[in-house]
Design brief:
Number of strands: 21
CATH class of the largest domain: Alpha Beta
Strand content: 15-25%
Strand order of the largest sheet: 1-5-4-2-3-6
CATH topology of the largest domain: Alpha-D-Glucose-1,6-Bisphosphate, Chain A, domain 3
CATH architecture of the largest domain: 3-Layer(aba) Sandwich
Largest sheet: 6 strands, mixed
Shape: globular
Helix content: 25-40%
Number of domains: 3
Radius of gyration: 22 Å
Length: 473
């Protein structure tokens, strides 16, 4: 019996050689090809790219053979490529979608399969459901064409996606002030696709860019996984102090997520980074427009929305919700708790490279170090503290969900519960404007417990209460 392929928060991910096999990648590609055919579009161009995980380029080639076998013209990247660059290639090549072979921040044992729409953004949930329904049960139901034959017919073409993307992001930002500032910037590439990008973009001035973890190594040494949060970034934080760097920029394995360390080697968490990026656009760039956020990210955005008179829209977790809402509202910025941020005038897709450039420009324009930028933000909205615990679980998920739903706590860590949001998981709203969220991962067998509060001394107690509510001690 064939494996059921499910598209979670951001595509399908599975363990290599277990469920993630060449046959199953081909099945997923056939489902996407059938979905595109159902749209009855005149354009038949598709972008396919990949990351630096084990066998990714070969899985990408297998997907390309399926799309070619279905009559699509495939533009296959000529090297491992950051996810935002793949997404922008949909626009630059006037394609109707993309396949990206990557498991992003997952453990080294995994690989993944992401799909993108004609805007370069995540496919909406109803589209993902249709793709799933069109995935054939058997590999024998797949139409594929050998890569050499497809290349001879012009159905598969390798291309360099870098020039068009670089030309475009120069329209978003003037790089010269960053180059001239004389920063010492450390970049943790997390063994991924972001390696070489900041040196390429910012060389030629007084600013010095140094990189760590910038080779291909699919086992991701010195970290559990290429996710830009602690403890995975602890080596980078120590190196920041050791090298006397002004800032640590961090990209995950496919460079769509962004993490930040200050000049003291302290982590600035991803909710704080979202607050900084929103403040940068509102205050430094004087932009106005909607802010789109998932329910698992910071309440600082609502406070900024009130201060600057811009709307704030909350969605479920994942860019499959954020991207459509950004397009609907012409949003200035969209983002999520995992460190993914998208910007107006670009593609509705997370871009860890542009996010890093914007933070550097904020440092230049305000003449502040990263720790001082955080002070500026807190002067506007007050201090906010965040933490998260991930726990693998066993047993029936629905029973756990019923247990959480029936808990109905009146207080959490001494703070009154003012409401419950079940849009995506179980979000207990607290009297200080903070929250406790219990949510099941859409890509892994994990339960995540998150919190944000204005009380620094209560984060651990809030998380422990969440674990107890979920039946994990």
């Amino acid at each position: 019996m064939s494996v059921k392929i499910n598209f979670g928060t951001d595509g399908w991910r599975a363990r290599i050689a277990d469920e993630y096999t060449f046959d199953n990648v081909r099945r997923a590609a056939q489902g996407y090809a059938s979905y595109l055919k159902s749209l009855k579009l005149n354009n038949h161009k598709i972008i396919i790219g990949y990351d630096k995980r084990f066998l990714s380029e070969y899985f990408a080639k297998a997907a390309a053979e399926v799309l070619a076998g279905n009559g699509f013209g495939v533009f296959l990247t000529n090297d491992a490529t950051p996810t935002p660059v793949i997404s922008y290639s949909v626009i630059s090549q006037k394609a109707i979608g993309a396949i990206n072979i990557t498991a992003s921040h997952n453990p080294p044992t995994d690989n993944g399969f992401k799909v993108r729409d004609e805007n370069g953004g995540a496919v909406a949930p109803e589209g993902l459901a249709l793709i799933e329904s069109l995935i054939p049960d058997q590999a024998s139901e797949i139409a594929a064409m050998d890569a050499d034959k497809a290349q001879n017919k012009g159905l598969i073409q390798e291309f360099d996606p870098i020039p068009a993307y670089v030309k475009h992001i120069h329209t978003l930002l003037d790089f010269d002030p960053i180059r001239a500032q004389g920063f010492k910037v450390l970049v943790d590439c997390m063994w991924g696709n972001g390696a070489g990008w900041f040196p390429m973009l910012l060389s030629g001035g007084k600013t010095i860019i140094e990189e760590i973890h910038n080779q291909r190594n699919p086992i991701f040494p010195e970290m559990k996984r290429p996710e830009p949060i602690q403890p995975n970034i602890d080596v980078g934080l120590r190196e920041t102090v050791k090298r006397s760097a002004d800032v640590l920029l961090i990209n995950d394995g496919d460079a769509d997520r962004f993490g930040l360390g200050d000049e003291r080697g302290q982590f600035i968490n991803q909710l704080q980074v979202y607050g900084l990026l929103a403040l940068y656009l509102l205050e430094v760039r004087q932009q106005r427009g909607a802010i789109v956020k998932t329910l698992s990210t910071t309440g600082m955005l609502e406070k900024l929305g009130k201060l600057y008179n811009v709307p704030v829209h909350e969605t479920g977790v994942g860019f499959k919700y954020i991207a459509p809402k950004m397009l609907e509202t012409d949003a200035m910025i969209g983002g999520e708790e995992s460190g993914g941020f998208a910007f107006r005038g670009h593609v509705p897709e997370r871009d860890g490279i542009v996010a890093g450039l914007f933070i550097l420009d904020m440092m230049v324009q305000l003449n502040k170090k990263p720790s001082e930028l955080l002070d500026v933000l807190f002067d506007k909205v007050g201090p906010h503290y965040y933490d998260r615990v991930d726990s693998r679980f066993s047993g029936d998920r629905r029973k756990r969900e019923q247990k959480i739903l029936s808990a109905k706590p009146e207080k959490v860590a001494g703070l009154k519960v003012t409401g419950l949001n079940t849009t995506d998981g179980f979000k207990f709203c607290l009297e200080d404007g903070g929250w406790l969220l219990i949510r099941f991962s859409g890509t892994e067998p994990l339960m995540r417990v998150y919190c944000e509060t204005t009380h620094e001394d209560k984060t651990r107690e809030i998380l422990e209460t969440g674990l107890k509510i979920a039946g994990i001690h």
